[in-house]
Amino acid sequence: MNINNKYLSKINLSKNELFFIIGVWSFIVGVLLFSFLGPNYFEGNAPKKFVVKQGDTFSKVVDNLCKENIIGNSTSMNVVAFLYGAETRVKAGAYQIENGLNYFQLINLFVKGTPGNQIRVTIPEGIWQHNLAKLLEDKLGISAKKFLELSKDRSFLNSLRIVSNNLEGYLLPNTYDFFENTSEEAIIRKLKNEMDKIFRDKSVIEQMAKLNMTKNEILTLASIIDGETNKVSELKTISGVYHNRLKRGIILQADPTIQYLKRHMRSKNKVYYKDLEIDSPYNTYKYKGLPPSPINNPGKNAVLAAIFPEKTEYIFFVADGTGGHKFAKKLSEHNRNVRAYRRWRSSQ
Questions:
Q1: pTM score, whole prediction
Q2: I need a labelling partner for 164 at 20 to 30 A (CA). Which of 32, 61, 68, 136 fits?
Q3: Cα angle, residue 94 at apex, residues 89 and 96 outer, rounded to 5°
Q4: Looking at the chain, which residues constitute the CATH 3.30.1490.480 domain(s)?
């Protein structure tokens, strides 16, 4: 007699015992199937809106599902998520939850990401921080006050590895799609991450090393450049002028830095002679070099212009009355351009 037959001969179950074991296992499997595949019903109108905020952990999502009575068992949800490998794959958004979904269907919904409408926000280049906060408050319903508080919160800045005393300049203007109820912190992290992407490029890293300039210095220069013109074609030329002045130790005399100092006092950006006497390290008519930090949030083109300036001998430029500028190598030439601009302005 072989070993298998000998072993099987010892298992001599009656039909009743066999049916009992099958019944127990069927019951266990049934309970498990019901737990995972059984529908989850909630009270009230369906579909029910459920929000997964940017940065929410999976455990927080499960807790919120329980609090809103969308699911009745957090353990079952966690087990299914484990089987799916979904703990880190849930997408943020405003979801419409139909009544009667089981745990597998809910996980599938959050992993595929079928949220409600997103809100598109266009952030203009060179925007001041307080105007950015107001724009986001109007478009997304966030708190402008909290946004500005976070912009200066030292512990929050440290978490973002910001050495400056303010986030202004570190948030990249662009067109973004945001989910409803996105938090102020999540918005800041998204805009900051987009700015960081520029500085991860190998050519940018190499060029900054050649310039011997820090990220804060590049963003500060870029913010001045962005404040000078709306013409993309002029950005690198203006950058070349400022790089030349910095190398030669010539004061920058940049009007945008004066406008920055007066931004809460006037609705218009006109600079008066008396403004040039403001005693501030941001006054580039009084102090050499760059200001301590950016004066606005520059766009990508301005940032790249600050990093890759045009090679030029220009030292001066002035508005030409058409939205552009006239550039000059010598002071005498610059003075002629200034007189021409003043005549144009008087004629207007």
A1: 0.69
A2: 136
A3: 100
A4: 48-112, 119-195
* DSSP bridge pairs for 319: 325
- Beta-strand pair 175-178/316-319: unpaired
Which of 309, 198, 322, 184 is CA-nearest to residue 245? 309
Nearest to 125 by CA among 225, 215, 207, 209: 225
What is 119-195's CATH topology?
Dna Ligase; domain 1 (3.30.1490)
3-state per-residue secondary structure call for 155-198: HHHHHCCCCCCCCCCCCCCCEEEECCCCCHHHHHHHHHHHHHHH
For the ranges 21-25, 166-170, 276-280, the lowest mean pLDDT is seen at 21-25
- Which CATH superfamily is 48-112 part of? Endolytic murein transglycosylase (3.30.1490.480)
Secondary-structure breakdown of the chain: helix, strand, coil percentages, each rounded to the nearest 5: 50, 10, 40
Find the largest Cα–Cα distance for the chain: 118
Burial of 276 per CB tally in 10 Å (0-12, 13-18, 19+): middle
Phi, psi for residue 66 in degrees, rounded to 5: -70, -45
